[in-house]
Amino acid sequence: MEVKKRLWFMLMITFLITFVVACSDDTDSSSNVGKDGEIAGDLEIQYFVGGYGDSWWKEVIADFQEAYPDVNIIEHAGPNINEEMRSRWVSNDPPDVVYIDGAGSSETQMVEDGQLLDLTEWVAGIELEGGDKLADSFIVKPADYDGKIYSLPLVFDTWGTWYDKALFEESGYTVPTNFDEFMESMSEIKAGEGIDPFVTSGQHPYYFLRGMLYPAFAAAGGEELLADVITGKEGAWSSEQVLEIMKRVETMVEEGMFDSGLGALNHTQSQMNFLLHENTFIPVGFWLPNEMKNDIPEGFDFGFIPSPMNAADEKYAIVPDLRPLAIAQEAENPDAAKAFVEFVFTREYASSFSEHTGAIMNLNGVDLTQNENVPEYLMEANAMINDPDLVQIYEKPHPMSADLETPIGNALISLMLGNMTAEEFVAEAEKAAEEYRTGLE
Amino acid sequence: MVQSKKQKYMFLAFCLVPTFILFSIFTLYPLFSGLYYSFFDWSGSSSNKEFIGFANYIKLFKDAIIPDTIMHDYFLVVTKILGIMVLAMFFAVALTQLKIKEAPFYRIVFFFPNIMSVVVIGILWTFIYNPSLGLVNSGLEFLGLEGWAKPWLGDEKWALPSIVLPAVWAGIGLFMLMLMGGIANISKSYYEAARIDGASEWQQFWKITLPLVWPQVKVSILYIVITTLNGSFILVQVMTGGGPNNSTHVMGSYLYQQAFKQYNFGYGATIGVMILVLSLITVLFIQFLMRREKVEY
């Protein structure tokens, strides 16, 4: 009898452990409104930590905590945070505030899935410290989804082409302003240094697509062509303008400008090649110096230009790349979330953002020249971008969907390796766009 | 004390129920939920999903990349079986029969890759294949064969064969030990008798060693097939990410790309079902192919 009882007991324990673990209690009993109607309760913030690091976030969150002592801030941060938090989003228990950036996150997908709070009306009422309306103070306006705003662009970044200023000054190479000069400059370098001048990540062909081709499309066909290409509109990829640009890429291949090993390189390896002077040009965003800060050789001096894929009679083109801040539709503490978002968008934090990250926050009227902690390349790039005689800024409607970007990237790598012609590439891309369109129906 | 029937069943239940519960939670439940999700249009990152019947399966049959991924998987299966079994058999026989003094040392060296994580192996070999700094290309240059140097993993033709090498290298040790165990069980008297009858080393290998370790060979091949179909994606993911231009995508890496990078989780689940079906068919086919009377002397 005794044995039997013990056996039952053991069995029960096994069951209990299994089920208690499986069904942990997740109800939230804490109140979101503190005494005197102050904002209180738990505030969960999810932010991706990549090339920009997390020091700026730490500063802002600490300041927010001081300003709102009743709020209990829970940070979810790291380079894999998008994957780690996925189950929370799937089970409709998301964090309150989310900074959308990095692998595994997609603003368009989140809007399609109805996961983000409609901020249209709320944003219209927000003012900055000087009394300006926030809605009028963005460098680039928030993404527009059928007239609604679901996210506020926090980081203004842009892809461009990097080179080592020290090397260029020492050896007298020219910094190109259009594609013809780009080819000349690369020929000089090929002869002078005995290297393949251009490198990008072959494992992630979107670096070339976003860094070199978007500006080229924009320079040739304006925001209209850029939008058509990104949305995969019929005939966009097979148009004359696109073919002409792809011919330029083919020329680069034929002249041996691409690093012969780029097909195998991931983004850090390609960036390492660039720092080691195995190559001299690389398309990356503003985050490059910060991301590689531990590996920069002595005497290396970062120079940034908008990607010179434009024809000789066109200006440099820049296509901003924005990383937004948003509030979850299912946020448990939307008041605190809104308070935090409003708290972040100030010119003061915009200035400190540039100090911490080497990139720009998406607010206008921020004078970086007075801030000696901002890196030099960023000030120069900022001045260049703001010079309308030199650079034209084109906005894209929203990022390209992964369902279109993946097949186009695959064809692109074949083109860059010399296994495909420009004509074959545009045919492949047009086919991919067609499949993408049928997938949306 | 005589056990009552009830006590006996209680004991059996005590042994089996916890395992069965864990098996259900960690194997059966994911298996059936994978099947379930394959009928949905679901991004995998929200709670919205829409039932779409067999649409994912229709897409699967129309997808031009799928046949390539299947080919790549079976290319890896065949080359890995050949590479691993031939080398593992060679080393096993050499270490047991040839009376090498350093045998224990070699046993440890060959087994070493098995205690390393596959991810580490992938990263290690990425460096070995690195076009400018890697061991392979510098070795070729040293031998005066610069013409053969290539960006191995960055070449559409050579990337997949380049992945076979680390896969074989990492696999030899375990199967070598299995075969050595089999060979050690063969009674020495057979070899003595064969030698007296004038059989050469080769004849001894073909007529005695191979038939008597056949059960181990069979298990090894099955194991290689299953682990390749289910696990080859780790090496691919780490070394090439499926590129360049899909030239190294296996079914698993394509599943990962669809489910987690292109947000087509339902379609990813469909690919998972395909992997399950193909693995089952392959295993049954191989068992049929390798059936052989058990040999005893």
- Described by the principal axes of the CA atoms, the overall outline of chain B is globular
| Strand order in the sheet with the most strands of chain B | 1-2
Q: Which percent range describes the beta-strand content of chain B?
A: under 5%
In the CATH hierarchy, the third-tier topology of the largest domain in chain A is known as D-Maltodextrin-Binding Protein, domain 2
Assembly annotation: heterodimer
> How many structural units, i.e. domains of chain A?
2
Percent of residues in helices of chain B: over 70%
Q: How many separate structural domains of chain B? A: 1
Sheet with the most strands of chain A? 6 strands, mixed
- In DSSP terms (H or I, runs of 4 or more residues), the helix count of chain A works out at 17
Major β-sheet profile of chain B: 2 strands, antiparallel
* CATH topology assignment of chain B: MetI-like fold
- What's the N-to-C terminus distance of chain A? 67 Å
Mean of residue pLDDT values of chain A: 88
Q: Biggest interface in this structure?
A: A-B, 47 and 39 residues
Q: Any idea what the CATH architecture of chain B is?
A: Orthogonal Bundle
Supply Rg of chain A.
25 Å
Which spans of chain B have pLDDT < 50 for at least 5 consecutive residues?
A: none
The structure class of chain A reads alpha/beta
Mean pLDDT of chain B: 90
Measured distance between first and last alpha carbons of chain B = 45 Å
